[in-house]
Design brief:
single chain; alpha/beta; TIM Barrel; 2 domains; eight-stranded parallel β-sheet; three-stranded antiparallel β-sheet; 22 helices; 15 strands; 41% helix
Length: 539
């Protein structure tokens, strides 16, 4: 159904035009011949509905598809089985997307997220998880949970919310979507990651906190030939709105892939934000040119921190070959240089466009990547110097709880905040034909996304999710989500057996990698001693 509506876009006002023409013809017939009253009534009513659709600001589908867009909302009133048949895609992610998207919509719209009839999941199915509650729950005065990001050499630590907007670039998202996200972040006091497309004029309109992500294309801080420019970096990094600097090594949806933005899509606004020529193909290389070894990477991180005036500086990666991550960790020991933070991006993360093989079969999932990074830093006695963020299909309060149990200090979400903007998963992001104005540069389509309304939904989603998280923390008898450990999460492994996450994913003792204890996981035994601080290659 969504695809059919999207295909009708070139004639999206046809129904409204026909209704208006029908009204005029019926009026003429009624005046001239005294007949056609019912036709005038019907066509007039449809015309009124169509004009209301165009004028209202709450539903982007109706603004882009007056009258015919109601077909979708009519189907939503039908039994769930029919609604799912007509409205959901046949992708592998459909069962996940359906429940999670409904949750986000309810919270973003300020509607109740309560559901009748109890648990809606199969509690006897392998993989079902829950958090253990306490008979002495706590009572907390705030849901504004925060973490301080900034290591020993950071001059401007950042008090970050533990739930923030993940990296999504202007160009992938529309100008109106960027504005709504940033306005919501400003109102709610949480951070907005720019994505590697750099800081656009639309990021600056509302003044929300920014995490400036820098990818291999060095957009916003590049020379004319695509190399890193210190001068242009400082111009953006010293802006008070920029709170942290994030160097992207890889992203979960397509690690090691790179990308090309065709010249036809490089508008004047995108060119200005990225520092590239308008109308020319724009390459994001698969690897960085500013460094070639783990030691050089850390030296580059230190230089970025210095140039930014001491703001928290770190990197984002999706775990691939484990010895490469170990090489970076070993370089931290040898140089004494540590990032202020590391963001672990799970292989299940989304993107606007990527080959199916990459989205489905490249990159470690968040659980494995986060577990490895956290335990490595613990085993090297570096964990207290470096904060860990994470991303990868994190939407609900329980998702946040589980990630923090595995070692995260904060979580980022892209998918959740896109749903809050009104994304209906039409899966046309790469075509520029987004029916809700979220992932398009078409100025007409963008108008369907009304910034003040969607900014409120972004704020509501964050606020209500943090409220739900507060409830979970209280139920567990804790004071802050940072106190959640793998001992609080239980997983069913088969119909008759359950295990604590602490047993399924055992941790590493502090200093264990330095001491060389024998009870380490095989991945450490196989690759730690063969990693090299001066090379990403396996020794």
């Amino acid at each position: 159904m969504l695809d059919r509506l999207n295909a009708l876009y070139p004639v999206r006002y046809t129904a409204l035009a026909l209704a208006v023409i029908g009204s005029l013809l019926s009026l003429f017939t009624l005046v001239a011949f005294g007949t056609g009253g019912w036709a005038l009534l019907v066509c007039g009513a449809l015309s009124g509905v169509g004009w209301w659709d165009v004028a209202q600001s709450r539903r982007a589908v109706l603004r882009n598809y007056p009258i015919i867009g109601h077909i979708r909302y009519m189907l939503e009133k039908v039994r769930p089985e029919l609604r799912q048949y007509f409205l959901e895609s046949d992708s592998e992610a459909t069962p996940f997307s359906r429940s999670q998207r409904s949750l986000v919509y309810a919270r973003a719209k300020g509607e109740t997220d309560k559901r009748p009839f109890g648990t809606q999941l199969d509690v006897k199915a392998a993989g079902y998880e829950w958090i253990s509650h306490s008979l002495t729950p706590t009572t907390l005065n705030t849901q504004d949970f925060r973490t301080t990001i900034g290591g020993p050499t950071c001059a401007q630590p950042y008090e970050a919310s533990i739930f923030n907007i993940s990296a999504m670039s202007f160009g992938a998202l529309s100008a109106n979507a960027i504005q709504a996200l940033n306005a919501g972040a400003k109102r709610g006091g949480f951070a907005h990651d720019t994505g590697e497309g750099s800081i656009s004029a639309w990021h600056r309109v509302h003044g929300g906190d920014l995490v400036w992500e820098i990818g291999s294309g060095y957009f916003g801080c590049r020379t004319d030939d695509g190399l890193f420019s210190e001068e242009r970096f400082k111009a953006n990094a010293l802006d008070a709105q920029v709170k942290m600097i994030e160097l992207k090594l890889s992203q979960g949806a397509k690690p090691g892939h790179g990308g090309m933005l065709p010249g036809a899509k490089v508008t004047a606004e995108i060119a200005a934000a990225r520092g590239i020529p308008e109308g020319q193909d724009c390459l994001s290389p698969s690897a960085h040119s500013a460094f070639a070894s783990p030691i050089e990477l850390l030296q580059f991180i230190a230089r970025l921190r210095e140039l930014s005036g001491g703001k928290p500086t770190g990197f984002k990666l999706c775990i691939g070959q484990p010895w490469e991550w170990f090489a970076i960790a070993r370089a931290m020991l040898e140089t004494g240089i540590t990032p202020d933070f590391i963001v672990v991006d799970g292989g299940e993360g989304g993107t606007g466009a990527a080959p199916v093989e990459f989205t489905n079969h490249v990159g470690a999932p968040l659980q494995e990547g986060l577990h490895l990074v956290h335990n490595t830093l613990v085993g090297l006695n570096l964990r207290d110097r470096i904060k860990i963020g994470c991303a990868g299909k994190i939407i609900s309060a329980f998702d946040i709880t589980r990630a923090m149990a595995l070692g995260a200090d904060w979580c980022n979400s892209a998918r959740g905040f896109m749903f809050a903007l009104g994304c209906i998963q039409a899966q046309s992001c790469h075509t520029g034909n987004c029916p809700t104005g979220v992932t398009t540069q078409d100025p007409m389509r963008q108008q369907a996304l009304v910034v003040p309304d969607k900014a409120t939904r972004v704020y509501n989603f964050h606020h209500q999710t943090m409220h739900a998280l507060k409830g979970l923390v209280q139920a567990a008898g804790l004071q802050h989500p940072s106190e959640i450990t793998p001992h609080h999460i239980v997983r069913r492994v088969n119909e008759n057996d359950v295990r604590l996450l602490a047993k399924l994913l055992p941790g590493v003792a502090p200093g264990a990698l330095l001491n060389g204890t024998d009870d380490l996981h095989d991945v450490y035994k196989l690759y730690w001693d063969r990693s090299q601080a001066d090379s990403f290659a396996l020794a």
